[in-house]
Amino acid sequence: MHRTESTIREYLRCLITHSGGRLWLSLGLTTVVGLLEGSALLILPVLLPLVGVGNPAGLGGVGRLAASLFRMGHIPLTLPWALAVFVAAMGAQAWLRVTLDVLNTRIEADFTCSLRERLYRAMVEADWLFFTRQRSSDMVQVFTEELHRVGYGAQQLLALMGTAAVAAVQLAIAFGLSPGLTLFALGCGVAVAAALRPLGRRVHEMGRTNQAKRSEMAAAVSEHLGGMKIAKSHGWEAHHLNLFRRIVRDIASQWVKTIRVQARARVALELGAVLAMSAFLYCAVVFAKVEPARMLMLAFIFSRMIPRMVGVQGNWQRVMQALPSFEAAERLRGTFQAAKEGSPAELPQRLAFRKEVRFETVSFGYSSESHAAALSEVSLAVPARGITAICGPSGAGKSTLADLLLGLLRPSSGRILVDGEPIVGQRLHDWRQAVGYVPQETFLFHDTIRSNLAMARPGATEEEMRAALVAAAADELVERLPLGLETVLGDRGMRISGGERQRLALARALLRQPSLLVLDEATSALDNENERLIQRALGRLHGQMAVVIIAHRMSTVRIADQIIVLKEGKVVEAGAWDELCRRERGVFSQLVAAGGAI
Predict the structure, then answer these.
(1) What are the residue ranges in the chain where pLDDT is below 50?
(2) For position 56, what pLDDT does the model report?
(3) How many CB atoms lie within 10 A of CB 518?
(4) Is the dihedral of CA 575, 576, 582, 586 positive or negative?
(5) Measured CA distances, 588 to 550, 579, 581 (Å)
(6) CA distance 311 to 305
(7) Which domains does the chain have, with CATH numbers?
(8) Own/partner pairs for 330-333, CB < 8 Å, 24+ apart?
(9) 439, 435, 460: which is closest to 449 by C-alpha?
(10) Strand, coil or helix: what is 75?
(11) Residue 33: which of 86, 87, 92 has the closest Cα?
């Protein structure tokens, strides 16, 4: 229970912080709505005698208050005027409710946006290695469904406050009519609420279970979609369907259980309210001998109050259901914050690169539990304006070296220096402004070519974009497309071929005008024609920037000024093509002799 109360406090604190003055405006308008409801009720003591039911004196202090308010406003105590005031009060209340609904919706929407933004900020500021260990479906699930539920919970909380404010005004008027009977009714309500408290806790726990089930389903959908090709090729469709059916049916079963608990709570509350109302009426007639006019007013007030109290209970249950979603979002944000990189400057400066990038006895391991390091005491230099190829058998550590060059990973030991200075702290963020990267699995957004290019450099002109396309041998491709730069590439760029995607990805990287360009297996899946175009583009870049090529193909490696050979995480050879090929028993010469790929 302590955990639940702590979550509620944090939830309220976040809502107050993100809503600012609008939350207090909402509370103020809610109070005015409640007062207008009370003013409408206070017209009844005037209306009842005018239609021949009782007299103002029989309604005690409430009747005298109502009559005095009419006199203060110089309003005649006649039926037309009383009805006019009643209609005006209810009309003003209805108009304010519309205003309040719009305001509360804006508060809820902005609250949800703020939570999404701060979670996304924590995510993008997290260490890259930590980020790669997270399940993407969990992040998508929290960003979409869970935070939507958190926002809905905020909406329910605001509705609860509004309903409670109106009920409080009604209760105050009832207390003025009969303090004893009102306290009796209030005591009955407290007893019913206390009896329902265990059901509220159960709803919260079931909300946690529902959240875990939704996360499981999101993971299954993500994994099954990613593996659909291999599933179909191996005839595993039925197996995948059975797994998915089990998950969704578990979710449906759990949801039915939750609704059953909520329905029981609602029925218990309604029955408790009816019993309390019956007991109240019996006591009012038999023991308190309440006069008919006062009795009519009390019955009218409590008949309007009971549905509101049932509504408050429903609002509260829905808030409790939203708490596990809030917990999941905060838990995910906390894990990202714990792995946060150092914060960059407001405007990172591009790090100058004039001589070389040097690795000094750099080692790196992906896990402290693993004894085998991905890289072990690697020392090498990447000169500015030269082409360096990194090659070696699978698992040699080539991609790890590329990620260290990009500043995505940090050495477990050793140093990486740019022009003699280590890339740590703010220099790391500045260094990332100076590098371009083309991975093997090119990612293009479902957007136009122009938008995909502009992501690398938002302020680039069309002339600069076309120059990057020319440098990447992609200009003819764009010219052939009917819409040119305005061509939409489709999901992950699937409307064009793999080689064309690679050339556009190279153009995007070149648009940054990087000091270092890293191509990580970027030509491994290309046909000969596209590989030739990429090689031609790289040849034109020679002398303009440092280029590091991670590659298997001999034809791609051959254009390099220096070739660094990795094996089992260590540099075993380094030199030019001819030099390495002359070493009869060298690792590189053996790879070349194997033919085709290295």
Answers:
(1) 58-59, 596-598
(2) 52
(3) 25
(4) positive
(5) 14, 10, 7
(6) 10
(7) 2-338 (1.20.1560.10), 357-434+515-529+542-598 (3.40.50.300), 444-513 (3.40.50.300)
(8) 330/10, 332/119, 332/138, 332/139, 332/142, 333/118, 333/119, 333/122
(9) 460
(10) coil
(11) 92
**DSSP-assigned beta bridge partners for residue 415:** 360
Give the span between the Cα atoms of 405 and 358, in whole angstroms: 9
- For strands 387-391 and 546-550, give the pairing: parallel
User: What is the residue type of 250?
Assistant: D
Residue linked to tokens 């990332």:
432
Do residues 260 and 202 lie in contact, with contact meaning Cβ atoms separated by under 8 Å? no
Distance CA 356, CA 148 (A): 49
- Cβ of 337: how many Cβ atoms within 10 Å? 15
Determine how β-strand 356-364 pairs with β-strand 413-418. antiparallel
d(CA 317, CA 265): 9
What is the pLDDT at residue 359? 93
* Residue 389, strand partner residues: 549, 563
User: pLDDT at position 404, please?
Assistant: 92
Q: What is the CA radius of gyration of the chain?
A: 36
Q: For the chain, how many residues are written?
A: 598
Contact 435, 514 (CB under 8 A): yes
Q: Read off the amino acid at residue 118.
A: R
How far is the C-alpha of 133 from the C-alpha of 127, rounded, in Å? 10
Q: Rounded to an integer, what distance in angstroms lies between the CA atom of residue 584 and that of residue 597?
A: 18
Strand order of the β-sheet with 570-575 is 435-438, 516-520, 546-550, 387-391, 562-567, 570-575
d(CA 489, CA 462): 18
Place of tokens 């405006």: 25
Phi-psi region of 575 (alpha: psi -120 to 50; beta: other; left: phi over 0): left
Residues forming beta bridges with residue 413, ordered by sequence position:
363
Distance CA 468, CA 463 (A): 9
Kindly report the backbone phi and psi dihedral angles of residue 414, in degrees, each rounded to the nearest multiple of 5, phi listed first.
85, 180
Residue of 455, 423, 416 lying closest to 351 (CA atoms): 423
> How does DSSP classify residue 126?
B
d(Cα 465, Cα 486) in Å, to the nearest integer? 12
Integer angstrom CA distances of residue 322 from 15, 204, 212, 314, 552 = 13, 8, 13, 13, 52
Q: Which residue has the tokens 């108009």?
A: 95
pTM (2 decimals)? 0.73
Q: Give the 3-state secondary structure of residue 544.
A: coil
Please state, in angstroms and rounded to a whole number, the distance separating the CA atoms of residues 164 and 365. 58
Pairing verdict, β 387-391 and 562-567:
parallel
* Distance, CA of 119 to CA of 146 (rounded, Å): 12
Task: Choose among 453, 452, 449: nearest CA to 481.
Answer: 449
DSSP assignment of 44-69, as one string?
HHHHHHHTTSS-GGGGHHHHHHHHHH
Letter string b/e over residues 276-301, b meaning 16 or more CB atoms within 10 A of that residue's CB: bbeebbebbeeebebbebbbbbbeeb
